[in-house]
Amino acid sequence: MNAVSMSTSPSVNASPAMSTKRVIGAYVAEARSECIRYMRNPGFMLPILLFPTMFYLLFGIVMGKSEGADAARYLLASYGVFGVMSPGLFGFGISLALERDGGLLTYKRALPMPPGAYLLGKMLMAMVAAAIVILLLLTMGVAMAHVAISAQQAGLLLLTGVLGVLPFCALGMLVGTLIKGQGAPGMLNLVYLPMSFLSGLWIPMQMLPKVLQQIAPIWPSYHLHQVALAAIGMNHDAIGGHVLVLGGFAVVFFAIAARRLRRYG
């Protein structure tokens, strides 16, 4: 009886790893598509741009004239933080919840693209939107309220907004992994609006009740507000602790959300 010869070569060849150039190209393409998709969506961009600019126009410019030049300058930082929170929370939270429900994340996992490209694209979209908000408020503050601010201070405020959106991206991402798509807008508004008020963005912290002043540091928006005030020269305290807290919020929220995405999709 003749022995049957068996082929030792595997039946399916392993797919070659993507080159570094292709990986970078995948990240760039995903980031570009996310930015274009959201910038062309008026339902997303208009509220993000209109709410902080309208509030600043009303309270910082029109009503702030009777309070002196420092009022418009202070509210520039306050409504800048208020505007920066929105693309992070809603850009990540609502879209992620809806896309999970619609099966888009499952589809993207089947594509030959790095798994982090989808999330990085959303993060860069939020940073671009935050930069637009800060630039609009700076233009209004200088042109309409005649806010005295140097180029260096304006640049620091812009940098604060672009990087400060990241903890709110992480929080939005976490909410998007916990809530169904239909419930995400309501839940995020329950986070967004009270956190803005309790952080002293609408009313100066000194005017809030003592108990609210004591619990304010639990909110990331409070720490970003202190950094923004320092950027325009209205807070001379050390900001290293606030930066570390913001970084801690971002890392913890991203880690929890990423774990949930791996486990539950």
Describe the structure.
The protein is mainly α. It has one domain. It is built from 11 helices and no strands. It has helices at 20-39, 42-62, 69-101, 104-110, 117-143, 151-164, 166-178, 184-198, 210-215, 220-231, 240-264. It starts with 19 loop residues before the first helix and ends with a helix. Mean pLDDT is 85; it is low at 3-15.
The largest pleated sheet is described as: none
**Count of individual beta strands:** 0
Distance between the termini: 54 Å
Low-confidence stretches: 3-15
Helix % is: over 70%
Class inferred from helices and paired strands: mainly alpha
Percent of residues in beta strands: under 5%
Over the alpha carbons, how many angstroms does the gyration radius reach?
A: 22 Å
Please give a quick description of this structure.
The chain has 265 residues and is mostly helical.
What are the salient characteristics of this protein?
single chain; 265 residues; mainly alpha; 73% helix; globular; disordered N terminus
Secondary-structure map:
Layout: H1 20-39, H2 42-62, H3 69-101, H4 104-110, H5 117-143, H6 151-164, H7 166-178, H8 184-198, H9 210-215, H10 220-231, H11 240-264
Helix pairs in contact: 1-5, 2-3, 2-5, 3-5, 3-6, 3-7, 3-8, 3-10, 5-6, 6-10, 7-11, 10-11
